[in-house]
Design brief:
mainly alpha; flat
Length: about 60
């Protein structure tokens, strides 16, 4: 949901990925298996995040 206060933004900005700033997004994946493999390599699971946070917490004590 977007709430506009006092009309439109004065300076509009868009953070849309383009082929110039993120060329890997233009690659077409032909199968669901390859898409899943690509997703797994770039996705951090929740358990990995919790383990990392615990390690940081233990090193600070």
């Amino acid at each position: 949901m977007v709430v506009l206060i006092e009309g439109r933004k004065e300076n509009t900005s868009y953070n849309t990925p383009t082929k110039e700033n993120q060329p890997h997004l233009a690659n077409v994946i032909g199968s669901l298996d390859r898409l899943w493999e690509r997703f797994k390599t770039s996705h951090t699971t929740m358990i990995e995040i919790v383990i990392k946070q615990l390690k940081i917490a233990l090193n600070q004590n």
